[in-house]
Design goal:
It is a single chain. Helix content is 48%, strand content 11%. It is an alpha/beta fold. A six-stranded parallel β-sheet has the order 3-2-1-4-5-6, sandwiched between helices. Helix 1 crosses helix 2 and helix 1 packs antiparallel against helix 4. The longest helix is centred in the N-terminal third of the chain and has 23 residues. The termini are close together.
Length: 229
């Protein structure tokens, strides 16, 4: 892919730029410091399943739209109940841990390097308020940060990706969607965006039938590929 074909980069945030499970585990350990790692993993799975299933219910029309903050609150109460914790302050702190997510080691420097050549657009299922907290905590650099809340739905709904084309003022084929989740890239591809898969330990890797434009080991590798020549 030659660099002039791309006018802006669109980044998934959760999992691609920040290590969401690591941040949630830290919150769970604060909530239940006496629990062993197996129990922390069980609670993490409970949290993740609730978020995924409720977003799917909204996409299927089985539940009215609610922003990610509301889902985080629900997940925090569910997990706290499973852990036997009833303190409202502890539950609120756990819900807030969904914003205290550490960046991957290459994220900050990678974004800075890419920002020298391209406008950077964040596109996340996190609510506007949550995205502000995530960006600030992880030190993410954007020219524009977009929340699926603006479309009142969640990825992979096409309306979320269309936010990026609307804001950029560019046709979809001039935008490169960057994500660690193959499902995210497939949905972006379906509305005409170019695609770049970045490998992360918590991502959804491509299958042999996926045809993404770029594959990168990390953001440093992506920058090398996009700026070569």
């Amino acid at each position: 892919m030659s660099q002039p074909q791309i006018d802006a980069l669109v980044f998934d945030v959760l999992g691609t730029l920040v290590d969401e499970p690591r941040g949630l585990r830290a919150g769970l350990r604060r909530l239940a410091p006496t629990r062993d790692e197996a129990e922390i993993e069980r609670l993490l799975t409970l949290w993740q399943h609730h978020i995924e299933s409720e977003q799917r219910r909204m996409l299927d029309g089985a539940r009215p739209y609610a922003p990610s903050d509301a889902l985080d609150q629900e997940a925090a109460h569910l997990v706290a109940d499973a852990a036997g914790v009833t303190d409202p302050a502890a539950i609120a702190t756990l819900a807030h841990s969904a914003r205290d997510l550490p960046p991957w080691p290459d994220t900050v420097t990678g974004l800075a390097r890419l920002a020298e050549r391209f406008p950077l657009i964040g596109l996340s299922n996190a609510s506007r308020t949550a995205l502000l907290g995530i960006n600030a905590h992880a030190g993410l650099r954007w020219h524009q940060a977009l929340s699926a809340e603006d479309a009142r739905t969640y990825k992979p709904d096409p309306a979320v990706y269309e936010l990026a084309t609307t804001v950029s003022g560019r046709p979809p084929e001039r935008l490169l969607m960057v994500a660690a989740h193959a499902w995210d890239l497939r949905a972006a591809q379906a509305v005409g965006l170019r695609t770049a898969y970045v490998a992360r330990p918590v991502g959804d890797p491509p299958t042999p039938t996926d045809t993404f434009d770029l594959h990168a080991e990390n953001l440093t590798d992506l920058a090398e590929q996009l700026t070569a020549g």
